[in-house]
Specification:
By secondary structure, the chain is α/β, with parallel strands linked by helices. The chain is built from 9 helices and 6 strands, in the order H-H-E-H-E-H-E-H-E-H-E-E-H-H-H.
Amino acid sequence: NILQSYFPKPIHIIGSLNHEKPTSNLITSLRKKILTTKSKNKKYLLLCPSIGDENLILSFFENCDHSNYNIILSPHPTHKKKILKNYFNKLDNKFEIKTFDNYSTNELILISDIVVCSMSTVAYEALFSNVMSVRLINESVPPFFNTEDKLPIIDNYADFNDLMSGKLNFKLKKKDFIKLQEHYFYKIDNNVHRRFWSSLSKFENKFKK
């Protein structure tokens, strides 16, 4: 175990304080603030380009039909201005793209029906928020993520078109979901803060003795 080789003393695994299950009240509140009645008959697709995969993702959206979806664009903050300009130049005549500067990608995930990305870890963020995520890839380019995590991968326009039209659906098996969750975040059960304080109490009691 790598951690134990560097930290031989007892290690308390608590999970991630940044990844707790969102409450239904939070999701409802975000939907009321962000979603418009004008587009209520369409599902919402959150598009999350990262650094180095923005052109790959763009090519899929240039060559596929997305008329069934409202598109929300939330790129990586480092190259946000550049990506927004490029996407609006190439796609704005094809369909409407929405952006929300006052909301984080994690908040936008909660009101979306599907998340599309490539290299980004947003794929995991969506999964653990119970939102389907799909990675777009080019098989001629080495992947920059774990290809054995069983998250849906699409490598051609035909399959992506089928996904957008509803002909293709993905569903992660429960055992694979639990395995992924334990591997990356240990537990997402809204009890991380309790485990955190419990661990601190144990340390405190130990030093008092």
